[in-house]
């Protein structure tokens, strides 16, 4: 089976700083991959490379064997969806937010999306900017899923949520993977790493400390080492 993403000597420079340095790793398909490391280690930069929000300065990045730089950015982002730390609601209702991602989306299809992300379908007519933090994050994930992606990238999606909303979102991520989707999740929450990770990538100062199965005995040592990190 081809890797979902393959990073070959990827380096990212921006504004005179180096955020990733000759990164070599794979992200497998149909698993929950956690990218971990201290603040400033390059986690978000690595994630953003996956859907072309960040363009590598050097190296080769492949998606299912194809060079990412050769892919149409908009089409690629429909296949490789991304949600962020702070959910962004578009003006209008929840239904209109979902339809912004897929203009032909019917109410019945929107209700199915709500069910998939454990969002009460009665909220479809609610103004999106009135949702709670957890509801808004689930709406944003539903909006991302409306394009039927093969991958969901999540950049610290629970960092602003309470414990209950965090638990619900973690459960959603695991259920998506159980249904065959790949999820790539960035976190610096040590406990969350071990609740979620099937495959683990640990970064420190833009370099890879560990990449492999989360149950590998070397993984825990890499996590411990990653906290002693010089931010950039």
From TrEMBL:
GO terms for molecular function: ATP binding; ATP hydrolysis activity. It holds the Pfam family ABC_tran. The keyword Nucleus does not apply. Residues 5-230 form the ABC transporter domain. Transmembrane segments: none annotated. InterPro entries: AAA+_ATPase (IPR003593), ABC_transporter-like_ATP-bd (IPR003439), ABC_transporter-like_CS (IPR017871), P-loop_NTPase (IPR027417). Keywords: ATP-binding, Nucleotide-binding, Transport. PROSITE patterns: ABC_TRANSPORTER_1, ABC_TRANSPORTER_2. PANTHER family: ABC TRANSPORTER I FAMILY MEMBER 17. This is Unannotated protein. It comes from freshwater metagenome. The lineage of its organism: unclassified sequences, metagenomes, ecological metagenomes.
């Amino acid at each position: 089976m081809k890797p979902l993403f393959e990073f070959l000597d990827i380096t990212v420079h921006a504004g005179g700083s180096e955020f990733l340095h000759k990164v070599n790793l794979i992200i497998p398909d149909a698993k929950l991959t956690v990218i971990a490391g201290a603040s400033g280690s390059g986690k978000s930069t690595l994630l953003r490379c996956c859907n072309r929000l960040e363009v590598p300065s050097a190296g080769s990045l492949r998606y299912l064997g194809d060079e990412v730089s050769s892919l149409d950015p908009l089409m690629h982002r429909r296949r490789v969806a991304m949600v962020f730390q702070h959910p962004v609601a578009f003006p209008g209702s929840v239904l209109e937010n979902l339809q912004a991602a897929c203009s032909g989306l019917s109410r019945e299809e929107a209700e199915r999306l709500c069910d998939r992300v454990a969002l009460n379908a009665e909220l479809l007519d609610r103004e999106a900017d009135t949702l709670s933090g957890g509801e808004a994050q689930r709406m944003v994930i539903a909006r991302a899923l409306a394009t039927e992606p093969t991958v969901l990238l999540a950049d610290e999606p629970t960092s602003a949520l309470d414990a209950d909303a965090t638990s619900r979102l973690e459960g959603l991520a695991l259920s998506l993977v159980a249904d065959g989707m790949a999820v790539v999740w960035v976190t610096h929450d040590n406990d969350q790493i071990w609740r979620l990770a099937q495959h683990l990538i640990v970064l420190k100062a833009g370099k890879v400390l560990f990449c492999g199965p989360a149950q590998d005995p070397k993984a825990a040592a890499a996590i411990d080492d990653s906290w002693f990190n010089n931010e950039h």
